Amino acid sequence: MQVKGKGIVVAVAGAALTMVLAGCGGGEPDRGGASRGKNEADGRRTDARAVLMAAAKKTGKQTSYKTVQTGEGGSDRSEMLFQKEPAATVIKAWGKKSPINPSGFHHMIFLGGATYVKSDKVPGKSWYTMDLGGDSDSSDSRAAGYIREFAGALAATESTEWVGEEKVGGHPADHYRGTVVLDELAKYTGPAIKKDVRDYYVELAKKQGMNSVVIDMWVGKDDLVLKSQESGKGKKGQEVLVEEYSDFGAVPKITAPPAKTVATWDEFIAGKAKA
Q: Which of 91, 166, 254, 270 shows the greatest Cβ crowding within 10 Å of its Cβ?
């Protein structure tokens, strides 16, 4: 399965299982945040750079949240829970069906350096565990979505502008949009986006064959990012990635499956061989 987006995947050994996997949540409200970028004449937050930088900072401080990521037309969908302390991720993904995975559904938990995968291949067990090495850390971070990349790229782009006030999930938000030219972003050295984040994002987009992308972001009045959308033409044609963020600080604590329900990797392989 290949979930549309930036092409970030985690390979699950031997099963041809690939998943899209970047924080937000509770904490004390930033009472001055919503005024950042505010036009004193009419109260509109039209200063896109100020609002987006504040939003990336505040959202990044959150302890947990939920990210729902969809590809073009909603054909691929991932629901991800992100938790900072201890670092943990829950990923449920729906994609194309295959002989290996007739349902097209994947369910994974990353916690404490271990990876747990939902499976019915081992009698009496409902999960198996495996070692992804350093990739487990990226899985934790990717569930936070592309907030840093998208907000930073927009804030670094002169064409970015305030579109208007809209509602996302029933919450009032300011909508910002800009066309990000990747070669120009690659040369940016200002405060809007860190060099490592900038280089990472440019590299991913160019690997998809993109030269420019249109990014939309919706920022709540409390400076928490509620939604983002990236669209651009790449090697496979038009690509669209949408992310929605919610449940800031309200995500249930992520825990490992009960030990008695978890098979080892060797048990999983043996179970597959018998299937």
A: 91
Note the pLDDT tens digit of each residue in 205-224.
999 999 999 999 999 999 99
Please tell me the total number of residues recorded for the chain in this structure: 275
Nearest to 67 by CA among 218, 223, 247: 247
Neighbouring C-beta atoms of residue 23, cutoff 10 Å: 23
CA dist 195 → 151, 190, 213 (Å)? 14, 9, 19
Q: Above 50 in pLDDT, residue 2?
A: no
- 214/252 Cα distance (integer angstroms): 34
Q: What is the DSSP letter of 257?
A: P
Q: Positive or negative, the Cα torsion across 139, 251, 64, 33?
A: positive
Alpha-carbon distance of 121 to 149, in angstroms, equals: 38
Give the whole-angstrom CA distance, residue 47 versus residue 37: 4
- For residues 26 and 63, the answer to whether their CB atoms sit within 8 Å is yes
β partners of residue 66: 81, 246
* Per-residue model confidence (pLDDT) at position 221: 96
Report d(CA 59, CA 226) in Å as an integer. 10
Task: Determine if the pTM surpasses 0.90.
Answer: no
209/229 Cα distance (integer angstroms): 18
CA atoms of 185 and 202, how far apart (whole Å)? 7
